[in-house]
Amino acid sequence: QVIAARVRAKLERAYEDFATSSPLTQRVFKVLRDHDPNICPAPGRAFVPLDSALKRFGK
Fold it and tell me: Which residues make Cβ contacts (< 8 Å) with residue 32, sequence separation at least 6?
């Protein structure tokens, strides 16, 4: 029962952290962890909007 209570407390805390924080501030996803907002993107690795990529194909 002691182990179950500890696990329950950990899960409740994890859920509370998940529910009240944003992925951007917590950097949950790999893309966000790898991105440093203080560094400009390297040349050739800039964001390309999907609609501009589709214009090439006439859509």
Answer: 23, 24
Amino acid at 23: P
Mean pLDDT of 24-45: 74
Residue 7, token pair as written in the block: 């696990």
Q: Are 32 and 23 in contact (CB under 8 A)?
A: yes
CA distance 2 to 7: 9
Q: Where are the domains of the chain?
A: 1-36
Q: What three-state secondary structure class fits 24?
A: helix
For the whole prediction, is pTM greater than 0.70? no
pLDDT at 34 over 60: yes
Give the pLDDT of residue 10. 96
